[in-house]
Amino acid sequence: MRFAVKERTESRHIGFGKVILFGEHFVVYGAEAIVAGIVEYTSCALELQRGRPGLRVVDERPAVRGYIPAKAAEQRRAHQLVLSHLHIDTSTDGLRVHLAGPLVPSSGIGASASDVVSLARALSEMYALHLNNEEVNNAAFVGEGGYHGTPSGVDNTAATYGGLISYRRSGGKSIFSRLALNNTLYLVVCSTGITASTIEVVKDVKRRKAADPAWFNALLERYNACVTAAREAMMRGDLQQVGKLMNENHTLCQQLTVSCAELDTIVDYCREKGALGAKMSGTGRGGLVVALAADEAQRDRIADDLAKNCPATKYVWKYSVLPMGSKL
Ligand code: MEV
């Protein structure tokens, strides 16, 4: 083996969860996305298993029902891709990979990205690779290929850096910057409990785009106007306008066919209860809704109401994105 290897990791290695506020799917085709890293994370600890080749994953993440078995094959592929990218050979001495942390894996929350980011960081300690954030992000991007097929890179970037990020992929490169807010964003994030396969949904959008490029380009043009206006509204603290643009982004997702009845029900419910805006977030066809509230009290009221009275809702989280900011 090329590296001095430890018996086990000692530090805590994490990858953040994320919520896409603008741009799922469009970001795959080079459009700007706005994504918020959330405080919950996945952690990864490693133990060397001498004479036992391969990886054994002990997955103790508090996932929504069915998520871990549904993603097991994709996870195996993703972990192998990270290992090969980092030139780590487990054909003689294998690894026990222990995943844990408070992030509840569910479709849309960036669980796969937080998994591969935390793994890359843990491998860096284990094999003395001294990876910086950019190298961790690159390894995680390769790993996301196992989960996503053709990832845009938005999820692994949010999982590596956290914070509020404007992200775009152009000419094979990730271009991103941290957005400095004037106000706190109070978010309700709500899961349908339905696990969707990002690889399949992204593939289906690609197929539809190829079949009708004019239809796709018209949606993309409307989306580009929407996200530009959203970033400007966020920067000047006009949350009413951000909410309206989230609604517009949801309509575009519906037209792209990536929403579903359960997501639409939850989105409508959040708006009826006074949210400034609500949309699906992430892969879609299941997964998450994100709603923007005017303040903390309204966020808590909407979240509690959803949990009690909206049967399409399986899990609800209350998040805040704080007005700190600096360049990445
Ligand atoms: C998944 O969280 C976001 C998608 O846009 C895929 C990607 O960006 O790689 C659907």
TrEMBL record:
Pfam families in alphabetical order: GHMP_kinases_C, GHMP_kinases_N
Cellular compartment(s): Cytoplasm
Chief localization: cytoplasm
GO BP: any one term: isopentenyl diphosphate biosynthetic process, mevalonate pathway
Domain spans labelled GHMP kinase N-terminal: 84-163
Recorded metabolic or biological pathway in which this protein acts: Isoprenoid biosynthesis; isopentenyl diphosphate biosynthesis via mevalonate pathway; isopentenyl diphosphate from (R)-mevalonate: step 1/3
EC identifiers of the protein: 2.7.1.36
InterPro entries given in the database record: GHMP_kinase_C_dom, GHMP_kinase_C_sf, GHMP_kinase_N_dom, Mev_gal_kin, Ribosomal_Su5_D2-typ_SF, Ribsml_uS5_D2-typ_fold_subgr
Residue runs in coiled coils: none
Keyword line: ATP-binding, Cytoplasm, Kinase, Lipid biosynthesis, Lipid metabolism, Magnesium, Nucleotide-binding, Steroid biosynthesis, Steroid metabolism, Sterol biosynthesis, Sterol metabolism, Transferase
One GO CC annotation: cytosol
Location of the GHMP kinase C-terminal domain: 230-311
Keyword Magnesium: yes
Source domain of life: Eukaryota
Keyword Lipid biosynthesis appears in the UniProt entry: yes
Molecular function in Gene Ontology: ATP binding; mevalonate kinase activity
Main EC class the enzyme belongs to: transferase
Catalytic reactions of this protein: (R)-mevalonate + ATP = (R)-5-phosphomevalonate + ADP + H(+)
Family: Belongs to the GHMP kinase family. Mevalonate kinase subfamily.
The name this protein goes by in its record: Mevalonate kinase
Provenance organism: Trypanosoma theileri
Lineage: Eukaryota, Discoba, Euglenozoa, Kinetoplastea, Metakinetoplastina
